[in-house]
Amino acid sequence: MHFPDSRRSFLRRLASLAAVPLLAPACSRSQSPEGDGRASSASPQGSAPAAPSQSAPGAAAPSAPAAKVKLALNWVPEPEFGGFYAARESGAFAKEGLDVEILGGGAGVPVVQMVAGGQVDFGISGADEVLTARARGADVLPLFAVFQTSPQAIMTHESRGAKGIADILKSGTLAIEPGLPYAAYLKKKYGFDKVKVVPYDGGVARFVADKDFSQQCFITAEPIAAKRKGSDPAAFLVASEGFNPYVVVVITRAALWKENPERVRAFVRATREGWRTYLQDPTRSNEIMAKLNTSMDAETFVAAAEAQRPLIETTETKEKGLGVMTSERWETLAKQLVDLGVLEKAPPIDEVLVATR
User: What is the mean pLDDT of residues 342-346?
Assistant: First the structure.
């Protein structure tokens, strides 16, 4: 099972923003071997589209061909992306006139640059990354937030009796990447002076072996792995402490929104339907993703899908629809990033959310 922290390492993504040109080369299928689980139907790059066939006199006019679009994931196929696969397999994308190719991601894949540069039409990012990218001049727009509650958490042993993150930080050892925004937030709120901070290694072996060891985690990943190894994980969400950026955010480039807003809206509508389908029954999509991501077994797919459900489907989404985003949440995050020194100045939120109006 892959662990999500490194793929969303804020500093590493900032480094990629600085190191990779905005107009980065398009990511090929060979660069993303996970792909989308189907043979690509896209025309070879540079080839002319096939001429439309002529209908016999009096025959009904053929329906318009589906628009081919690409969606770039920021990690390999896992339940956090289940709704996108469900939208494709259930026909939700097709119903909206879209032929969607899903590009599997991985560590270091520059999704924001790929979207901003037009190599792909849509991509997956995090809300903090969106704000940072816009502050650096990348004209990308958020459209749909899958995770209403961030899955980032701190995991400790249940035997320690901690009631929250404040208790965890009173003693023992904590494996964490201290430069990440959520870590900086916790350090500013509680201090790390009573806990021994060590580098996070991406696994759970040290956690399983040491009862005084705690670590950063995604509540949908490491606790499941630790429990399956016979340990007693207790995880506490960072969101409960007041730092709660949207996660698995669908983004597009501003130019596409201006040129073809209906295509963007169609993608959002299909995405919402796909996530409804996945939340109702993830079985089919999990089977497809499991073939693309053989490092995660079927039992873990099921457990992760169940663990993420309350983070995706909330009271607010039941009232306003899956994927909803509010300007208040974005403004709060922007202020926090400025306060933590991540951003010098927050971009205007009304401009950030122009495609959600």
Answer: 94
